[in-house]
Design brief:
CATH architecture: 3-Layer(aba) Sandwich
Structural class: alpha/beta
Number of helices: 9
Distance between the termini: 26 Å
GO molecular function, one term: methyltransferase activity
Low-confidence stretches: none
Helix content: 25-40%
Keywords: Methyltransferase, Transferase
Protein name: Class I SAM-dependent methyltransferase
CATH class: Alpha Beta
Pfam families: Methyltransf_25
Largest sheet: 7 strands, mixed
Number of domains: 1
Order of helices and strands: HHEHEHEEHEHEEHEEHHEE
Mean pLDDT: 93
Enzyme class: transferase
């Protein structure tokens, strides 16, 4: 994972991202038959949104992330029984031991996926599981159903970012002309996992969002992280706030959170 990927984004992440539904914890507990025992490993934990949500289901938890500032943000709002480590996923197992569950939420596609899949398989205890928390939190669902405020103007925001940074999506020090990689199932099967089993979590919660929160959501993204704008950061933010005022003079927006799926893989034998 490129350590510059989210440079400058950490302080915006918690305010800018929609929360994961609390039902994620319930569905994981019931779907995996969790009983409070074992340990959780959250890989690419960011500021710890998923780690803190799921940690009460386990005896203890470890969150790891390649971005030092993300780890520091996680430590500021930590809970008992959670350890935070500044660590690239490719550096696992790093003496962390074994785990009942390893989770990846909006992070696996940034990693050396074949390598990390193999490394984490060796860290799962017998009967353990890899869980991909599949869902986006930087924006809600598009739709025409009535909301208490306008939806954030995501298309206009995207156009503004492209005006400043160019038409090809940026990610840290790299460009992503084809977007992030697909084919996760092939990677997991080749690394020796069986599955997947999908455990759905119904979304639909409406979140009211201030203009400051929408600005934070933009700066929480890899393709519009603050460092990418360099000396034009303040200018970009002024233009962004102008776009938001045009879309909602009150300064308030609303979004309906989308569904989430927990994609469960079990360790087996790697393909030869």
């Amino acid at each position: 994972m490129n350590e510059a990927l989210y440079a400058g984004s950490a302080r915006y992440y918690a305010a800018g991202r929609l929360p994961y539904p609390p039902e994620v914890a319930t569905v994981l507990r019931d779907g995996l038959g969790l009983d409070g025992r074992g340990r959780l490993l959250d890989v690419g934990c960011g500021p710890g949104s998923v780690t803190r949500l799921l940690a009460p289901l386990f005896e203890s938890a470890v969150g790891v992330d390649a971005d030092r500032d993300m780890v520091e943000e996680a430590r500021r709002s930590s809970v008992d029984g959670v350890e935070w480590r500044h660590l690239r996923a490719e550096e696992l197992p790093a003496g962390l031991g074994t785990f009942r569950v390893a989770t990846f939420a909006q992070s696996f596609h940034w990693m050396d996926r074949p390598l990390v899949a193999r490394l984490v398989r060796g860290m799962l205890e017998p009967g353990g599981a890899w869980v991909h928390v599949d869902g986006i939190t930087h924006r809600g669902e598009s739709g025409t159903d009535p909301l208490p405020h306008p939806q954030p103007p995501h298309e206009a925001i995207g156009a503004l970012v492209r005006r400043y940074l160019g038409p090809v999506r940026r990610a840290g020090t790299a460009l992503l002309p084809q977007g992030t990689p697909s084919g996760e199932a092939e990677v997991m099967l080749a690394a020796g996992y069986t599955g997947p089993e999908r455990l759905p979590v119904v979304g639909g919660t409406v979140h009211e969002r201030s203009a400051d929160q929408v600005v934070a959501s933009v700066f929480s993204l890899s393709w519009s992280a603050p460092h990418l704008f360099g000396e034009r950061l303040a200018e970009f933010e002024r233009d962004l706030r102008s776009v938001l005022r045009s879309a909602s003079p009150s300064g308030w927006f609303a979004e309906r959170a989308g569904d989430v799926a927990l994609v469960v893989w079990r360790p087996g034998e790697a393909r030869l």
